[in-house]
Amino acid sequence: MYLTDLAFIEEGTPNYTEDGLVNFSKMRMVCFRISHIIREIRQFQQTAYKIEHQAKVTQYLLDQSFVMDEESLYESSLRIEPKLPT
Question: Does the predicted model carry a pTM greater than 0.85?
């Protein structure tokens, strides 16, 4: 979410004005968003989260039988979303 927000500002707003000057409005916006995001992330990192261990979840995540090689992943991708003719 944070990365999308920053990317939108970066890609959606020009670095320079129509006169060829630095777009300080964009720079202020970027600095404000970055500082806001850092504050939020720090707040989340300081919060203690009580997460109980779930053995079934751990077992599922560590199960190697679900791992597919690159070719199988590519074939599955094409089945789900076929290439469009160019």
Answer: no
